[in-house]
Write a structure and sequence with these properties.
It is built from three helices and seven strands; from the N terminus they run αβββββββαα. By secondary structure, the protein is of the alpha+beta class. It has one domain: Peptide deformylase (Peptide Deformylase), CATH 3.90.45.10. The strands form two sheets. The chain has a five-stranded antiparallel β-sheet, sandwiched between helices. It binds nickel (II) ion (NI). Nickel (II) ion binds next to helix 2.
Length: 182
């Protein structure tokens, strides 16, 4: 089932999410719905708050990158109760977009590697260092659980340049091809 996307201006995107148990109601169905919603919208990641749920959970699909990065072939996973324990000093600036901010694409600087823990879709605990595109998407999605959006991380100047677009968005003035929460 495709879930409606919450867009900038809706308060759930600015709230701090909470950890869940593996017996969270209909968790497997929710994961499946989030996969479907993300893929339908051509996203590589989708976090709970973006479908109106303030829960510490996100899904990531990197299969679309597998032509250039064979290691991501079939990569489709849920990350439950994720934590970032430490980050590399090395950072890089990469262009990001977000399904909750249609039409906005900006370069964001983030650490290149992060040491994380999480439960996967089967409830198995992981403790690992991530790098490459996975580290990038994980950090973007983790921000959602903290009530943060990538535009918060832009310079004052870049924020000023997109200010009008963001204000218009909160008033429902934007275009996107997927189902949104009204
Ligand atoms: Ni996002």
């Amino acid at each position: 089932m495709i879930l409606p996307m919450y867009i900038l201006g809706q308060s759930v995107l600015r709230s701090k999410s909470n950890d869940i148990d593996m017996d969270y109601p209909n968790l497997q169905e929710l994961i499946k719905d989030m996969y479907e919603t993300m893929q339908k919208a051509d996203g590589v990641g989708l976090a709970g708050p973006q479908v109106g749920l303030p829960i510490n959970m996100f899904v990531i699909d990197l299969d679309v990158l597998s032509e250039d990065y064979p290691e991501y072939k079939g990569f489709l996973h849920a990350f439950i109760n994720p934590k970032i324990l430490e980050s590399s000093e090395e950072t890089e600036s990469i262009e990001e977009g977000c399904l909750s901010l249609p039409g906005i694409h900006e370069n964001v600087r983030r650490p290149t590697q992060v040491h994380v823990t999480y439960l996967d879709e089967n409830g198995t605990a992981h403790d690992e260092w991530l790098n490459g595109f996975l580290a990038r998407v994980f950090q973007h999605e983790y921000d959602h659980l903290e009530g943060k959006l990538f535009v918060d991380r832009l310079s004052t100047l870049r924020k000023q340049m997109i200010r009008k677009k963001l204000i218009a968005m909160t008033k429902g003035k934007y275009e996107c091809s997927y189902k949104v929460k009204k």
